[in-house]
Sequence to fold (137 residues):
Amino acid sequence: MPSTEEILGIILGGGVGKRLYPLTKQRSKPAVPIAGKYRLIDVPLSNCINSGILRIAVLTQFNSVSLHRHINQTYNFDRFHQGWVQILAAEQTPRSSDWYQGTADAVRKQLFEIKATRAAYVLILAGDHLYGWNTKK
Fold:
């Protein structure tokens, strides 16, 4: 079993979100509010943090300003934790003028940043999934 210190969490920041329109008119799917002050992105972020995975990168591209604001205002670790939540935004470079062409392409285009963390394992999660379970059997 790997140590959680060896794991990098990658959370995919979502695409256009046509099925959730008009909620996604001005924000990405992971930035859609749920239960008051929370956002959909808080589900995979809190799952990582509560599992001890404290190095997390969020890949964003579409309508991402409110998502960036929420992450920056919410996820700041104290001096006693070595973790971080970092935004890896889509970017155009001299080598590539294309934006992300899908989720696998987003990870591929951020491989340099992912490898720079020296993580032994990478956990890739969607940023717009909401989970539920039935405790009655």
Summary: The mean pLDDT is 88. Helices lie at 42-50, 65-74, 103-109, 111-116. The CA atoms of residues 75 and 118 lie 22 Å apart.
